[in-house]
Design a protein that fits this description.
mainly beta; 11-stranded mixed beta sheet; 16 strands
Length: 170
């Protein structure tokens, strides 16, 4: 019985040690969660669109709050896997409203030299008031697919457009 107790304690301690700093967000992205501030922003470096934290490829979430906001409003959340953008990127207006939410293929750059690339999955863009500016999905080819919502808060202000692999359907 004593050996069982010792093995249980060892298992428990190993479980805690291997899970420290690792969390899973709502999109299933796993890794460290680091809140970016003046004391640790120097630990992040980028070279050739690869992100490092303390000199190692970064896997996890980088979160930034507005510096001047005493209520702790989010500015952005970025998710990385092996130093590259992964899962989603979210930015927020100063009032706390979601501004933009983009999905990435693992390792994708959303914009390269002004051109959109590696788009896949949900894309949402909102105004300061929380009203939809654009919302839709990109398919595995990076093209608009399905119903896209363009514009406004009222039902008369929102326009639905239907796309099939990037082609607008009438």
């Amino acid at each position: 019985m004593n050996k069982l107790f010792v093995n249980t304690i060892i298992f428990f301690l190993l479980s805690i040690a291997t899970s420290c700093g690792e969390q899973t967000n709502e999109m299933g992205c796993v890794g460290k969660i680091i809140v970016l501030n003046n004391s640790n922003k120097g630990y992040f470096t980028s070279k050739n669109r690869i992100t490092y934290y303390k000199g190692e490829l970064f896997t996890g979430s980088k979160i930034k709050y507005y510096d001047y906001d005493t209520q702790g409003q989010l500015k952005f959340k970025e998710y990385f896997k092996d130093g590259k953008f992964s899962c989603t990127w979210e930015s927020y207006w100063e009032n706390g409203q979601l501004k933009t939410k983009k999905s990435f293929r693992d390792g994708g750059d959303y914009y390269v030299r002004g051109k959109q690339r590696n788009r896949m999955g949900l894309f949402e863009d909102y105004g300061r008031d929380g009203c939809i500016s654009r919302k839709g999905e990109y398919n595995e080819n990076g093209n608009k697919n399905g119903i896209w919502l363009i514009g406004g808060c009222s039902s008369s202000g929102v326009k639905e457009l239907l796309y099939n692999d990037g082609e607008l359907k009438e």
